[in-house]
Amino acid sequence: MEKPHVVALRKVFLSKYMENVNSAEKKPFIYLDETWVFSNGTVRRSWQDEDLGSVKRTSGDGGRYIIINAGNEEGFVENASLIFKSKNNTLDYHHEMNAENFEKWLQNDLLPKLEEPSIIVLDNASYHSRLEEKRPTTAWKKVDLQLWLQKNCIAFSELDKSLDNIITTTGHDVLRLPPYHCIFNPIEMVWSQTKRFYDEDVLKSKNPLDAWNRALQNVTPEQWKSYVKHTENIIKTYWDKEKFVKVNKIIINLNVETDESDSDFNFAENDI
Which residues form the Tc1-like transposase DDE domain (predicted)? Predict the structure, then answer.
């Protein structure tokens, strides 16, 4: 059974997404995400396997490269790609990316390249969610506190997130994916295509950076458009199912952790 906060956040996402889709002044969505490749090829991993700690590469698999990029139905945002070599080879790269580095990429490599006000779609990785001000910690997660306050008609202000402020002050909006819903991000399918190409190319070229750049160039705007269309159909299906469904009473579990980033780790690349 889905956790109440996931259901609630999905409804928020769907509502905001469809509001823009149906708007007379629709803004383009920009989908961003991080992924990784190894110098000797990538790893296929099914989303059903939740034990990330048990999955590691051997030293013979070569170095790992962490990648950030963004795009939409028109293709990748031009010259926004970032790739850098990781310091270790474990599959869980998230501890190597931090808010400072991500926000630097956002400010220098992505936002200046956007030609019109856009909606930036991203997940809730910890480095996407750094608070502008440090606040006292509690046993409750932010979303649980907010849902409880809403239920009891108590007003509250959003905790300012540094990344959100960076985006909104440049004229764009932020739309955060609900936890465990990477199917709402078409760039996951783009990653699958690029990694298949990369796996074949890097074995011949032995140059990870060149192989990855060729893999990016191999994705056409038409393919991006088909991935976005496929994702929009999924989102609209969820919207049709959920827009009239009443959310059950929220039962808050004080011990539940909600920090997540699904990306490739919860997505079966071979099943696309």
Answer: 29-196
| pTM assigned to the model | 0.74
Phi, psi of 19 (to 5 degrees): -60, -40
pLDDT tens series, the chain, 272 aa: 888 889 988 999 999 999 999 999 999 999 999 998 999 887 544 333 334 343 444 434 578 898 999 999 999 999 999 998 887 655 555 556 677 788 899 999 999 999 999 999 998 865 555 544 444 345 656 666 666 556 555 544 454 567 888 899 999 999 999 999 999 999 999 999 999 999 999 988 889 999 999 999 999 999 999 999 999 999 999 999 987 665 444 444 444 444 455 444 333 344 44
Strands (E), 118-231: 119-122, 173-176
d(CA 95, CA 85): 14
- Do 92 and 56 meet the contact criterion of CB atoms below 8 Å apart? no
Inter-helix orientation angle 221-242/187-205, to 10°: 150
Other residues' Cβ atoms within 10 Å of the Cβ of residue 222: 10
Cβ(94)–Cβ(261) under 8 Å? yes
Q: How many helices (H) and strands (E) does the chain have?
A: 7, 6
CA atoms of 164 and 173, how far apart (whole Å):
8
